[in-house]
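Exam revision sheet. Question 4 asks you to relate a sequence to its structure. Input first:
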Amino acid sequence: MKKKFCTLTMVAFMMLLLVSVGAINCVRAQGAERTSWSTQLEPTIDGAWTSEDEWTDGEITMIGEDVAFRSTWDMGDFVMTRWVVEFFSDTTDDAEDYWQFCVDGDQSGGATPQELDYKFEITGHTDLVWYQGDGTSWTEESLDETEIEWANSLSDSPTNSTAHWILEFQIPKDGGTVQLGVTWNLRVGVYDASNAGAGVLAWPLDSDADVPDGWGFENYQMANIPESLSLGVVVLLSSVAVIVATVVFRKRSRIDKSG
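Answer key, structure tokens:
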């Protein structure tokens, strides 16, 4: 019995090592890493800070001095991921403005958009288009409007008292048309047509929406567990625990019956 348990423990340990190595070796921009924390506070998706604390438990990531974004998630029928992006220097309503969000769902990188890479763009603050990689470029994907909830508006916030563009959105990571993966590589980009000379402001810096190799690492962690454990590791540990418990139960049952 002890030998069996030790063997299973070693298997679990090796699996954890493989997960760690995979996380280290996933293709992404070096030094570009952030964390999305679990939350009990569900924000109102209305393009504004409805309350002063609805996003305060999200880690702030800056794009220069002009853009800040945060994210949180929670687990219900689906794992919902939610975001707020604030463009402090954009105070004008231009038809060519856009928000852009890119996800590498299997963290494989690539010089071109791959099958598990996704992108959505909101142009002119009114129109959302969703894309999926096909190995060489982006292909527009049909996405039911109920699968992603979003809103943006010119509003002030606890972060900046001057009215500026704020985007909020939420989408299930593990349900609907797209399956976004447990952890992501990520790119966030914004463009202000009234300040075209600034170009596209993006995280990671100098990343390209068409080159997943240069996107950053988006980790998902639970706020009530040690910071070193990611969502992927928690799921793995849960699975291993079930396997160990099942084997032990069966072993004990056979012993009891034979006695």
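Marking note for examiners. The CA atoms of residues 117 and 209 lie 10 Å apart.
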